[in-house]
Every structure is written in structure tokens, then in C-alpha cells.
Write a structure and sequence with these properties.
Elements lengths: L1 E6 L5 H18 L15 E7 L2 E9 L8 E8 L8 H17 L4 E6 L3 H6 L3 E9 L2 E8 L1
Parallel strand pairs: 4-5
Antiparallel strand pairs: 1-2, 2-3, 3-4, 5-7, 6-7
């Protein structure tokens, strides 16, 4: 898998379509969560995506400090269902953390994590901050990497 990083206005139509399809496939259909994925935050984000055999199979969107949380943040972390067995979730997180350091020159990152993925994010150095909450009907926790 090869990673690419782009701003919103740098996407080709084909890339944007694949990313929106992947996000919808996982966050709306697979997780049975009816919510508006298109939230007008993509225009501010840095987009990191993984390509395998000319298909986008992994993605995150990354925000500079102050654009989403006080710290830099990583969100919409997604890997295509049929590609998860290869550890690409870890690869996309490592690449995203590196992108935060490279592009924003900071180490502090805040995420809003689905509770069931707490150990996954702890593996990448994140720690829970505060109590859990519901986001779009799904249990979440805030986590920081300092």
C-alpha cells in the first residue's frame, strides 16, 4: 500500500469519489449509523489515503491544531473491510501520526475514538481523557497523544 497526502482541492474526482464511498461503506452502512458524513470539515483537512492496486483502501483526515480540537487531530480512520486482516489500520495510523509531525510540527494529537477501538489507539500512544460520550449514537472517548 502506498500513501498519498492531499488537500481537499487537490483531489481528482475519482479519488474523492472513492474516499466518500469508503467512508460511507464503513461509517454509515457497516456500522448502521445514519449520519451526515459530509460536514464541510473536509475542506480544512489534510487527507491521507492508502492505495493498493489503484484502489483507495485506507484513509484518515487530519486537522491542524485549533481546526477541530485544541491539539492537532486525526479522524475518519477507515480501512476497507476486506483489507483489515493485513494490519493496514496500524499502517495508516503510523503514517497519520508522522504526517501531523511533518506538516504541523507538533506532537500533541487529540482523537474522538470509538470505545471498542481503545486498545488499538493505546497501542499508538493515545490515552483516554475524561468520560465516554455518544457521538452519532456510537460510544466514543476522547484520547490524547502527548
Amino acid at each position: 500500500m502506498d500513501f498519498k497526502i492531499k488537500l481537499f482541492n487537490e483531489f481528482t474526482t475519482h479519488e474523492l469519489y472513492q474516499i466518500l464511498q469508503l467512508r460511507s461503506e464503513v461509517f454509515v452502512v457497516e456500522q448502521d449509523c445514519v449520519y451526515q458524513d459530509l460536514d464541510f470539515k473536509d475542506q480544512k483537512a489534510l487527507h491521507l489515503f492508502g492505495v493498493k492496486n489503484d484502489k483507495i483502501i485506507a484513509y484518515t483526515r487530519i486537522f491542524k491544531p485549533g481546526d477541530y480540537f485544541d491539539n492537532a487531530s486525526i479522524g475518519r480512520v477507515v480501512v476497507a473491510a476486506d483489507e483489515r486482516k493485513y494490519g493496514f489500520g496500524h499502517d495508516v495510523m503510523k503514517a497519520s501520526i508522522k504526517a501531523v509531525k511533518t506538516h504541523f510540527k507538533v506532537d500533541k494529537i487529540t482523537i474522538s475514538a470509538q470505545v471498542y477501538l481503545k486498545q488499538f489507539y493505546e497501542y499508538h500512544g493515545f490515552q483516554q481523557v475524561g468520560e465516554g460520550y455518544l457521538e452519532d449514537g456510537i460510544p466514543h472517548i476522547r484520547m490524547n497523544k502527548l
